[in-house]
Each structure stands twice: as C-alpha cells, then as structure tokens.
Amino acid sequence: MSLLPTYARFDVEFVRGEGMRLWDADGNEYLDCLTGISVSSVGHCHPAVVEAIRDQAGRLMHVSNLFYTEPMTRLAERLSRSSLGGGVFFANSGAEANEAALKLVRKRRQGGDVVVLHGGFHGRTYGALSATPQESKQAPFAPLVPGFRAVEPTAGAVAAAVDERTAAVVLEVVQGESGVHVVGDDVLRAAREACDAHGAALVFDEIQTGMGRTGSLWAYQQTGVVPDALTTAKALGGGLPIGALVTGPALAEVFAPGDHGSTFAGGPVVARAALAVFDLLDDEALLARVRAQGERLRAALEELPGATAVRGRGLMVAFDVVDRSAPELAGRALREPRLVVNATGPQTLRLLPPLTAEQAQLDEAVARLGALLSAS
Ligand SMILES: Cc1ncc(COP(=O)(O)O)c(C=O)c1O
After folding, report:
1. 29 band by pLDDT with thresholds 50, 70 and 90
2. Average pLDDT over residues 244-248
C-alpha cells in the first residue's frame, strides 16, 4: 500500500453510492450515517449535482482566478446573500477557508491574537492547526503559528480573553470533531459583546455546521448572534472539494489584490455542483424536516441500551457509550449491521446522516445501532 499512514482507515473499499446507501467492492450494501464527514448532505450522487457537474465538465473546467466565471460569481452572490452580505473568498477545503479567515483578521489588526476555544477543531494546515488546541495534534508539529490563545468555552473565559490586542475570536457553534458539543448561546453572546467592545472580529467556523446540517442554513441563525465572517466547506460542494470564507460588509474591504490566492479555488465545476447543492438545501421545508428528524433521532437514541449523553442540533448528533469502545463499535457496525458511523473519541459515536434521508432510513439506522449495542 503506497498511502502514507495518516489515517486509521477501515478495511472497506466503497465503489458506489446512492442517497443514503453505499456499496463496497464485494457488493455489500451499507446505510451511511457519516456522509464522508458531513459532506454528502444531499446524499451520494444526487442526480441534480451529478448533472450539474457533467454539464459544466463538458463546457469549461478551469481558467484560474485571473478571470471571472459565471458559476463562481453566481455562487459567491448566493453565499453572501444567504448569510452575512459581504464578500467571498473561495478555497478548496475547510482548513484553507480558515487560513483565509486567519489571514484576513490578522491583516485587519496586525500582530493581533486569535482567541479560540478548547474542544474546537479548525483543520490540519499550520494556521488552522494552531487554532486547534489539542496537544496530540499540535505537539509533534511545533513550532506552530504564534498568537493563538485557547480558553474554556464559557462566557466568562471568552470575555476575559478579549482585549484591544485581539484580532479575532474564532469558534464553532457546535464543536464537531470533539464530539458534537453545542457551544452555549451565552458564550456566543459574550464573544459578540467582547469583540464589539474591543474592535475584534468574530468568526464562526461553519465548516461542519453549515449548509443546513443543524436545521438552519447556517448554525448561527438559531443563536441570535451574527458573526463578522464565517467559513464553510464540506457539504457545500456536494462531494467535490470547496471551501469559502464569507464576510459581512465590515470585513469585505480588508483583502486587496495579492493578499491571498489559490489556483483551483471556486472553479466552474465545483461552483456548479455547489449551486445545485444550494438549490436543494436552501429550502425552509427541508430545514424544518431536518430539525424534526433530529429531535426524533435523539429521542430514539435515548432509548438504546448503553447509549447516554445524547446531544446535538438538527442532524448533527452524537452519544456516548457506557463501558464500550466507540472505535471498536464503529468497526463492528461496518462488518455486521452494515452501518457507517464514526467515533470522535474513545466513547463517543457521531451520526451525520444525509439531510435528504427518508424517515424510514433513519429509523432503520437506529434499529441497526440498537442491534449493535445489544450484542455483547
Ligand atoms: C469545524 C471544522 N473546521 C475545519 C475542518 C477542516 O476541514 P478540511 O478537512 O476540509 O480541511 C473540519 C473538518 O472536519 C471541521 O469539522
């Protein structure tokens, strides 16, 4: 095997996907409650996304960011209009979107600190990693980018950390990789007030929570707190790689030509895919269903033997297992009930099903989890 061993991969080779279902090379069928880590939110190979990609691939695939393309400008418009109303910088991944955000807030307040929250995850590139206060991920790669301060996710800690040297507070509204922990609205309000008082920028990393995952197009829309910028990626491309930094009007003029760039970012094929995803997910009826399905899913999980601390928002859900190894259970789920879930920690299983899942499929996923947890 020629791959560098950066992942503890499961021994499964997937060859086909449709909606919530995946098939492996031996023809086994699986129910997907992970969606490539919150990427395939419209399900695998959604016909509208496939058709947009096919059509655009036959017209124009790449010209670089030295020029305009219609899909890119239309997508930027749509992202801005659906959220903060400022400007958009396209990237190719979540970490890259965060790099853009970090450069923007540092350019605005040069030499300024970036306050981040314990339990947060922002990616693996150097800036994003420096914003991810986890010893095991950071320590082997020191020295990191300087100027990051991690605080506990409490209103008091955030308020105390922000002053006139703070460039930004960067946080996830629901912390995904550390196990789906909803950050309290009081913490978000404290961050907003502290940033306003000291002229710092408030940036929400909506890479996992965005594009409808929590039951509103953007997670911040359920909190009463509006950030100055947000980052998105994952589900935006419907399975193709894309990331974006979206600013509010106040930050739209910070970057000037030459400040940042990317050869591929926002290319016409991925932009067409993202526009198709937008058409599917920016839909109040679908979002209301995600909220209702999320509640029903959490209620059903509460009933499972050995499942505890059920939590989440919309269809971003996790629970802890008592006296069991979550990574071991995730491996067994693949082999026996043929369910794709992932462990975010030694005792935590996370569910990120498609936002287009049928209720019967979600019920079936819960039944398979029940079988898994009941088996000794
Ligand atoms: C909240 C959050 N930010 C950033 C990232 C990094 O995104 P990517 O893996 O596309 O670089 C992730 C990925 O899981 C994430 O969940």
Report:
1. very high
2. 99
Length of the chain measured in residues? 376
Torsion of CA 174, 175, 181, 183, to 10 degrees: -50
Q: Among 183, 211, 234, 264, name the best residue to mutate to test ligand 1's pocket (greatest count of ligand atoms within 8 A of Cβ).
A: 234
- Considering only CA atoms, which of 145, 150, 148 is closest in space to residue 117? 150
**Which helix (H) or strand (E) element contains residue 332?**
helix 326-335
pLDDT bracket for residue 1 (50, 70, 90): confident
Contact (CB, 8 A) for 167 and 108: yes
Instruction: Give the residue, by CA position, lying nearest to ligand 1 atom 13.
Output: 123
Q: Is 327 in the pocket of ligand 1 (CB under 6 A)?
A: no
Residue 279 has which token pair?
């058409």
Tokens 């499942």 -> residue: 307
- Judged by DSSP in three states, 284 sits in helix
The reply to whether ligand 1 has any atom less than 6 angstroms from the CB of 125 is: no
Sign of CA dihedral 373, 40, 210, 161: positive
Q: What average pLDDT score do residues 193-206 get?
A: 98
Q: pLDDT tens digit string along 274-289?
A: 999 999 999 999 999 9
From residue 132, give the alpha-carbon distance in Å to each of 87, 125, 127, 294: 25, 10, 9, 27
Q: What is the CATH number of domain 49-281?
A: 3.40.640.10
Question: From the DSSP assignment, how many helices (H) and strands (E) are in the chain?
Answer: 12, 17
Is the whole-model pTM more than 0.90? Answer: yes
Centroid of ligand 1 to alpha carbon of 243 (angstroms)? 10
Ramachandran area for residue 111 (φ above 0: left; ψ -120 to 50: alpha; else beta): left
Q: How far is the CA of 278 from the centre of ligand 1 (A)?
A: 19
Ligand 1 and 45: CB distance under 6 A: no
Measuring from atom 7 of ligand 1, which residue has the nearest CA?
A: 94
Q: What is the CA radius of gyration of the chain?
A: 20
The one-letter amino acid code at 47 reads: P
Distance (Å, rounded) from C-alpha 316 to C-alpha 344?
13
CA distance 236 to 210: 8
Q: What is the pLDDT of residues 108-164, one digit of tens each?
A: 999 999 999 999 999 999 999 999 999 999 999 999 999 999 999 999 999 999 999
pLDDT at 376: 65
